Amino acid sequence: MANLTNLYDVSKCTACRGCQVACKDWNQLPAVIEPFKGNYQTHKDTNGDTFTIVKFMEYEDPVDGVQWNFLKYQCMHCFDPACMKVCPRQAYSKTEWGATFHDPDKCIGCQYCTYACPFEVPKYREREDKITKCTLCVDRVEAGLTPACARTCPTGALTFGPRDELLQVAEERVKFLRVNGFPNATIYGKLELGGLNKLYVLTDTPDKFDLPVNPKVSGNTVFWQDWIQPYFGWLIPLALAGSATSFITTRILANKHGAHGEGGHE
Amino acid sequence: MALIPEYRADVPRVERFNFLARFSHWGHTVTFLLCLFTGLVLFLDGVNWLAAIFGGYAGAGLVHRIAAVGMTIVIVIGGVFGFKGVIEWIKDLLRFGKNDIIFVMKFPLEFLGFPVKMPPQTRFNGGEKGNSMLTPTSVMLLVLSGYIMWFPAIFPGGLVRVAYWTHDIAMVLATFMVCMHGYLGSFHPGSGESFWGMWKGTVRADWAQHHHAIWYEEAYGDKDQDKTE
């Protein structure tokens, strides 16, 4: 099955945050009220009850004055997700159409995934001692619907469909933007981390949108998962086997060479 | 052959470990083993039966944290009230020298049961010195990385990622040492009295003289001249 994905075109986004509300509505997430922090962004980051946010990035352009960049931010549904790799309970799985699904019933709230994720997207929900994140509306998509965020978007900034088709749309759009006042326009999610199941059309370089330019799974996580976890633990059975061997050989040799003295060997 | 030599109250005995040392030792034993088995639930994949013993994964996580706090308390009590003993312990470890290296080199033969003549040892022999350095270091790393993993939100993300593999490495090293230590301190025939040294606090004087000649001479030599051969 072809990958189904969201395409988010920032050049069409008005930051109405309808997607944020629709997400809360469909996933039955309670409101999380954070204090005002000096800009229009509702939440500092995604959290246990907020799967998606619209980020507001202000910057001062010498010619055009104060400008805004908007970015809908949520789980990127990586093709090769680090969260899935580190999860000790196999709570993560990939659907055949590309969503990274997290099963709360298996989750034990260890938060390994939060720190393995290059975007630090999986968030801890304290009241349940579990991790939560965007599901790419698995339940809706598998029932033939589009994700809540894409369905509600009034400007067409968010669309949903087969990834290869949306990639073509994105490429056309980037070409158009580049000759129409956005020379740095680019696609995000096509190649990053081996491909993301979320596509972005950005009007400027990713760093202007608070996205990692070259996202990477931390070397610490790779070292931990690829070297320590599979091999290092064998030292323990080695110690047990060594003790068992010694337990037998010491007793065989004691018979041969004569027993140890009462207080130990003499 | 008995698994452990019989405790003999009728022969001259000398103190090896005071109450606080024994309290710390067995306090660590209980809390470490609880942490180990609840922790293995996550380290080994698919050991649901092990998790079930502690009431499932959440239960194992709770026991792990309670035991970890218990271990911290044992460390603090041992470190504060037994400060003098800890310093003496460290001083003995710093005496690691030629005799200890010879001991460690010859030890594999002794481990398997071949008769070996060992050079005189201080209070802790070469192998015990190694264990005394590696295991407490691992436990310190386990405690520090453990609290970082428990409260990741108050630490920088990079430190949390380091804590994950540190916790695993320290756990494997400590468990390796604990397996060897548990066996050598009990069922290994050459260890003899050492179990009683940690359980009752005293060992047979003749055993101490044979296994830890330097320590015995320094600690009890003057008082027990008549008993030496």
Automatic annotation (TrEMBL), chain A:
<dbReference type="InterPro" id="IPR017900">
    <property type="entry name" value="4Fe4S_Fe_S_CS"/>
</dbReference>
<feature type="binding site">
    <location>
        <position position="134"/>
    </location>
    <ligand>
        <name>[4Fe-4S] cluster 2</name>
    </ligand>
</feature>
<keyword id="KW-0677">Repeat</keyword>
<feature type="binding site">
    <location>
        <position position="19"/>
    </location>
    <ligand>
        <name>[4Fe-4S] cluster 1</name>
    </ligand>
</feature>
<dbReference type="GO" id="GO:0030313">
    <property type="term" value="C:cell envelope"/>
</dbReference>
<keyword id="KW-0479">Metal-binding</keyword>
<keyword id="KW-0004">4Fe-4S</keyword>
<feature type="domain" description="4Fe-4S ferredoxin-type">
    <location>
        <begin position="98"/>
        <end position="127"/>
    </location>
</feature>
<feature type="domain" description="4Fe-4S ferredoxin-type">
    <location>
        <begin position="64"/>
        <end position="97"/>
    </location>
</feature>
<feature type="binding site">
    <location>
        <position position="113"/>
    </location>
    <ligand>
        <name>[4Fe-4S] cluster 4</name>
    </ligand>
</feature>
<feature type="binding site">
    <location>
        <position position="13"/>
    </location>
    <ligand>
        <name>[4Fe-4S] cluster 1</name>
    </ligand>
</feature>
<dbReference type="InterPro" id="IPR051555">
    <property type="entry name" value="FDH_Electron_Transfer_Unit"/>
</dbReference>
<keyword id="KW-0411">Iron-sulfur</keyword>
<feature type="binding site">
    <location>
        <position position="117"/>
    </location>
    <ligand>
        <name>[4Fe-4S] cluster 3</name>
    </ligand>
</feature>
<feature type="binding site">
    <location>
        <position position="87"/>
    </location>
    <ligand>
        <name>[4Fe-4S] cluster 4</name>
    </ligand>
</feature>
<feature type="binding site">
    <location>
        <position position="153"/>
    </location>
    <ligand>
        <name>[4Fe-4S] cluster 1</name>
    </ligand>
</feature>
<feature type="binding site">
    <location>
        <position position="83"/>
    </location>
    <ligand>
        <name>[4Fe-4S] cluster 3</name>
    </ligand>
</feature>
<dbReference type="GO" id="GO:0046872">
    <property type="term" value="F:metal ion binding"/>
</dbReference>
<feature type="binding site">
    <location>
        <position position="107"/>
    </location>
    <ligand>
        <name>[4Fe-4S] cluster 4</name>
    </ligand>
</feature>
<feature type="binding site">
    <location>
        <position position="137"/>
    </location>
    <ligand>
        <name>[4Fe-4S] cluster 2</name>
    </ligand>
</feature>
<feature type="binding site">
    <location>
        <position position="149"/>
    </location>
    <ligand>
        <name>[4Fe-4S] cluster 2</name>
    </ligand>
</feature>
<feature type="binding site">
    <location>
        <position position="78"/>
    </location>
    <ligand>
        <name>[4Fe-4S] cluster 3</name>
    </ligand>
</feature>
<dbReference type="GO" id="GO:0045333">
    <property type="term" value="P:cellular respiration"/>
</dbReference>
<dbReference type="InterPro" id="IPR017896">
    <property type="entry name" value="4Fe4S_Fe-S-bd"/>
</dbReference>
<protein>
    <submittedName>
        <fullName>Formate dehydrogenase</fullName>
    </submittedName>
</protein>
<feature type="binding site">
    <location>
        <position position="110"/>
    </location>
    <ligand>
        <name>[4Fe-4S] cluster 4</name>
    </ligand>
</feature>
<keyword id="KW-0408">Iron</keyword>
<feature type="binding site">
    <location>
        <position position="23"/>
    </location>
    <ligand>
        <name>[4Fe-4S] cluster 2</name>
    </ligand>
</feature>
<dbReference type="Pfam" id="PF13247">
    <property type="entry name" value="Fer4_11"/>
</dbReference>
<feature type="binding site">
    <location>
        <position position="16"/>
    </location>
    <ligand>
        <name>[4Fe-4S] cluster 1</name>
    </ligand>
</feature>
<dbReference type="GO" id="GO:0051539">
    <property type="term" value="F:4 iron, 4 sulfur cluster binding"/>
</dbReference>
<dbReference type="GO" id="GO:0015944">
    <property type="term" value="P:formate oxidation"/>
</dbReference>
<feature type="binding site">
    <location>
        <position position="75"/>
    </location>
    <ligand>
        <name>[4Fe-4S] cluster 3</name>
    </ligand>
</feature>
<dbReference type="InterPro" id="IPR014603">
    <property type="entry name" value="Formate_DH_Fe-S_su"/>
</dbReference>
